[in-house]
Specification:
By secondary structure, the protein is of the alpha/beta class. It has helices spanning 12-20, 85-113; strands spanning 2-4, 10-11, 23-27, 30-34, 48-50, 52-55, 60-63, 68-69. The chain starts with a strand and ends in a 12-residue tail after the last helix.
Length: 125
């Protein structure tokens, strides 16, 4: 299993989420949703941390030294393939929340980049 740390410090769940989240793909000219699930857990889980990144603006590779936090126990049930309707609904609900969060984070970035002009008008009577 490959996890990415390009987005900065994160925990193992946020790293795994990026591998198992839903994504839009082009399927024969149509938009389709795709996601991965684990059908069977391996006896030993190997996680490879993607540390080498590529900066397109500089056209060069660099090493990410971002921290990846692991807990003593990692629960993978949220990534398992299931026919349980309640679990499917919770997973789909989490995708909606993550998309909303992404939109809000983009909006926050826009608002914090934009300079604020304050004009003071003092009226003397």
């Amino acid at each position: 299993m490959l996890v990415d740390v390009a987005e900065g410090d994160r925990d193992i769940y946020s790293a795994l989420d990026s591998s198992f989240d839903i994504e839009q793909v082009d399927l024969e000219g149509r938009e389709a949703k795709r996601f991965l699930s684990i059908s069977h857990l391996p006896p030993i889980l190997q996680i490879q941390v993607q540390r080498v990144q590529y900066d397109r603006a500089k056209a060069s590779a660099y090493k990410s030294n971002s921290h990846l936090k692991f807990q003593d126990t990692i629960y993978l049930d949220r990534y398992m393939e299931t026919d349980e309707p309640d679990l499917k609904a919770k997973r789909e609900e989490s995708w909606v929340w993550k998309e909303e969060l992404k939109v809000l984070e983009q909006r926050l970035a826009e608002l914090t980049k934009t300079p604020v002009r304050i004009s003071w008008l003092i009226l003397l009577g």
